[in-house]
Amino acid sequence: MKFAKVALIASIAGLGLAACDSAAENQAEDNIEAMEDARDNEVDAMEEAGQITEDQADAMDDQTDAMEESMEEQADEIDGNDAM
């Protein structure tokens, strides 16, 4: 799971550099959403397989949501927008 988190953050860092206008920012946010969905699906599968508890899954989901928010804020900042 740590590898997936590192890969996710590295991917988003690359997206942040590419987000230089509104279209790029929108694409970055779409990619962030897709990565969030993939991680949510991975966490759900781990919980269903009994690899983690419901509490652990909830904590991981909260962590995913926090990472998504942070990455979207970074995309906003790079684009020069403070939409939040």
Topology:
Layout lengths: L1 H17 L3 H27 L5 H26 L5
Helix pairs in contact: 1-2, 1-3, 2-3
Please explain how this structure is put together.
The radius of gyration is 14 Å and the shape is elongated. The chain has a domain at 21-74. The longest helix is centred in the middle third of the chain and has 27 residues, at 22-48. Helix 1 runs parallel beside helix 3 (54-79) and helix 2 (22-48) runs antiparallel to helix 3 (54-79). Helices cover 83% and strands 0% of the residues. The mean pLDDT is 79. The protein has helices spanning 2-18, 22-48, 54-79. The chain has 3 helices and no strands. The protein has 84 residues and is an all-alpha fold.
Short description:
The chain has 84 residues and is an all-alpha fold. The chain has helices at residues 2-18, 22-48, 54-79. Helix content is 83%, strand content 0%.
The biggest beta sheet reads:
none
* Secondary-structure class: mainly alpha
Radius of gyration of CA atoms, rounded to a whole number: 14 Å
Oligomer: single chain
List the secondary-structure elements in sequence, H or E.
HHH
What percentage of amino acids are in beta strands?
Answer: under 5%
Roughly what percent helix?
Answer: over 70%
The stretches of 5 or more residues where confidence is low (pLDDT under 50) are none
Compute the separation of the termini in Å. 30 Å
The dominant shape is elongated
Number of strands: 0
Q: How many DSSP H or I helices?
A: 3
In round numbers, the mean pLDDT is 79
